[in-house]
Amino acid sequence: DAGVIQSPRHEVTEMGQEVTLRCKPISGHNSLFWYRQTMMRGLELLIYFNNNVPIDDSGMPEDRFSAKMPNASFSTLKIQPSEPRDSAVYFCASSSNSEKLFFGSGTQLSVL
Amino acid sequence: GEDVEQSLFLSVREGDSSVINCTYTDSSSTYLYWYKQEPGAGLQLLTYIFSNMDMKQDQRLTVLLNKKDKHLSLRIADTQTGDSAIYFCAEGDGNNRKLIWGLGTSLAVNP
Fold first, then answer.
1. What pLDDT digit, counting tens, does each position of B50-89 carry?
2. Residue A58: exposed, middle, or buried by beta-carbon count in 10 A (0-12, 13-18, 19+)?
3. Which of residues 20-39 of B touch A (CB under 8 A)?
4. How far apart are the first and last CA of chain B?
5. What digits encode the pLDDT tens for the residues A95-105?
6. 3-state secondary structure of B83
7. Does B49 contact chain A (CB < 8 Å)?
8. Chain A: nearest CA to B43, how far in angstroms?
9. Could you tell me the CA-to-CA distances from B11 to A69, A93, B4, B35, B90 in Å, in that order?
10. Which is it for strands A10-13 and A107-111: parallel, antiparallel or unpaired?
11. Chain A residues inside the 8 Å CB shell of B3
């Protein structure tokens, strides 16, 4: 398996623009997580899905953030409109009924 | 609320042992994890320990758990330059998937 695949690897955008981050989990994994990593706050869990259903989105910072998982092999995290304080590395991770997470390589987002 | 704390930096010489420490607050933790993050990459599960164990050894890695003091450590024997990375401690209850993460310890290995 190729592991968790995220795209794009880097995204530079201007404030106010819509940003869409994509994730393909490991085949057969039924849990998917979106994390944000910053120097100041470390790793923050934004949302996680189990069997494509959002279980806990309490970490989503505000209504500008939304996440979807239309099927078992694809998820998106959307920020609209984006702001400079959203600049961070966004990680997707998947697991198979456990806390042993497999992380993607992340998307480095810069909002100017 | 639950919290996991780690020292932010550790510097060792190649060939020495590294010990990375972590303290946690949640006494209901079932599993404690060590993840490794290399530059520009995602986190990778290194090892984990079940809360009813005191020690776990896996090749160069030794995990020690003091449940009374809520203290976890990761010892890397014969540290190599390839071990330079950020090491994250995390705790979980085994069920709800919401791991509590430390801020990570940046390990620098000097030749």
1. 988 999 999 999 999 999 999 999 999 999 999 999 999 9
2. exposed
3. 31, 33, 35
4. 41
5. 997 788 999 99
6. helix
7. no
8. 6
9. 42, 29, 21, 18, 21
10. parallel
11. none
